[in-house]
Amino acid sequence: MPKSMIEVTQLHKSFGSLEILKGIDLRVHQGEIVVIIGPSGSGKSTLLRCLNCLELPTSGTVKVEGENFADKSGRYNEKRVARLRTEIGMVFQSFNLFPMMTAIENVMAAQIKIRKKSKEEARKTAEKYLKKVGLAERMDHYPSQLSGGQKQRVAIARALAMEPHIMLFDEATSALDPELVGEVLKVIRELADEGMTMVLVTHEMRFAEEIGDRIIFMDKGVIVEEGNPSELFNAPKHERTKLFINQVLHPESEKI
Amino acid sequence: MDILNHLDFATAFKELTPELWQGLIIALEATLGGFILAAVLSVLIAVGRLSESKVLKGMLVVVLEIVRGTPLLVQLVYMFYVVPLLISLVAQFFIPNYQFQLNPLVAGILGLGINYGCYLSEVVRAAILSIDKGQTEAALALGYTQRQALWSIVIPQATRQAIPVFGNYLIMMIKDTSLLAFITVNELLLRTQAYASQTFLTIESYTILAIAYLILSLPLSQVVRLLEKGLSKHA
């Protein structure tokens, strides 16, 4: 039995009186690639953000490599949460690069501040990962001088430089111009080939089908259906899943 | 038209200029000290007002209202004449006959610093609030604590954004150092007053003083404008 990297039990999340997640159970194994799909407002991004406690669960538990984010008394101690987060890299839809730093400084910052590495060490690691995402030539550029696809690749390098055990991708290509999506997906695919444990939220169904070991379909705060890609895309069991996949794959038939 | 015939700018210029140089040094000292204090205070107040603590927030709002609701000149006079008395009063419980005194320049720096710190805190607060939440989230996701994210990611960006506004306040502060004349700081205005009353060269003295301030602030406005351009590059 492979090691369990993420373990979510009976996760509920409410914003005020609005319940977004209504009891999610999820387990992600080492090296597994889980893709979460679903209509907007289904809670998939919230679920992903609960996995590194950017959203604190209203109830239920989230464990990373066996360690609970909450301490024994059920509280979310900030230092503990921060420490566990260093094992989880996250890539956002809107990149969120630090605008006052160059690409390489973006990748170095947390290594120095959080991992307490020396500047030289951090620079070496940063160079390695920027090369990996194909940006060796752009290291000294500021985010404002980079294209969307380049920015997102820097963001991926920044997350990887912390050498996390898990990577989360929150609609990493949704803000990109269509012609730039490919370069980012290529980097993600390479990571998948190297055996990185990943959880992705995406609207790229073809990519989800190709890369995912398991697809999770969410709607209205619950996991409606999960399974391997060919099952879920070709023979969905639930009516809601069928409807969603049909709509996404054939958008022009939506209004008929 | 008698006055016109007696105008003597040449003499006034010759005699007053060295005085003004001396005064300028003091004015710049006051500005430097006052502005550093104001900048530090502004960030601390802004962060305090964005904190979770209701007590701290409440206290800061009271201080801000007091500072904004009273004239700077009154604050300076209060700082110089009243605050030392109050401190002496309290200190005398412990040390008999203790007299606390505040150097006029120090009182001026404190007064200017606190006043400007309060106004600038609003600028910093607005700048902090304008920074995209994604910046904090990215830092948190990398393992920063809230405090680390605030101080090493958000505040550097916010202060960068605030710098042009800070520049304008800096120029205002240089001009406001003239108020320190009222608390016996020997800056430009006080020296000019002294010279004018000795020589009766009133028109000449104050005109030269006004021009001196202009010469001081015009190039600075230009510098602020350049700063604004340079900083907007990677914002």
Structural commentary:
The complex is a heterodimer of chains A (256) and B (235). By secondary structure, chain A is an alpha/beta fold. Helix content of chain A is 37%, strand content 25%. Chain A has helices spanning 44-51, 78-85, 103-113, 119-132, 148-160, 178-193, 205-211, 229-234, 239-249; strands at residues 4-15, 18-29, 33-37, 59-64, 67-68, 88-91, 166-170, 197-201, 214-219, 222-227. Chain A has a six-stranded mixed sheet, sandwiched between helices. A four-stranded antiparallel sheet of chain A has the order 2-1-4-5, with helices on one face. In chain A, strand 9 (214-219) and strand 10 (222-227) form a beta hairpin. The longest helix of chain A is centred in the last third of the chain and has 16 residues, at 178-193. Chain A is globular and about 55 Å long. In chain A, 45% of the residues are buried. Chain B is mainly α and 235 residues long. In chain B, 81% of the residues lie in helices and 0% in strands. Chain B has nine helices and no strands. In chain B, helix 2 packs across helix 5 and helix 6 (133-141) crosses helix 7. The longest helix of chain B has 41 residues, at 9-49. Chain B is flat, with a radius of gyration of 22 Å. Chain B starts with a helix and ends with a helix. The interface between A and B is medium-sized, with 30 and 22 residues.
Structural class of chain B: mainly alpha
What is the overall shape of chain B?
flat
Greatest chain-chain contact: A-B, 30 and 22 residues
User: What distance lies between the first and last C-alpha atoms of chain A, to the nearest angstrom?
Assistant: 47 Å
Question: In total, how many beta strands of chain A?
Answer: 10
* Most strands sheet of chain A: 6 strands, mixed
- Unreliable runs of chain B: none
Tally of helical runs of chain A? 9
How much of the polypeptide of chain B forms β-strand, as a percent range? under 5%
- As a percent range, the share of helical residues of chain B equals over 70%
Family (chain B): Belongs to the binding-protein-dependent transport system permease family.
Subcellular location (chain B): Cell membrane
Protein name (chain B): Amino acid ABC transporter permease
Membrane topology (chain B): Multi-pass membrane protein
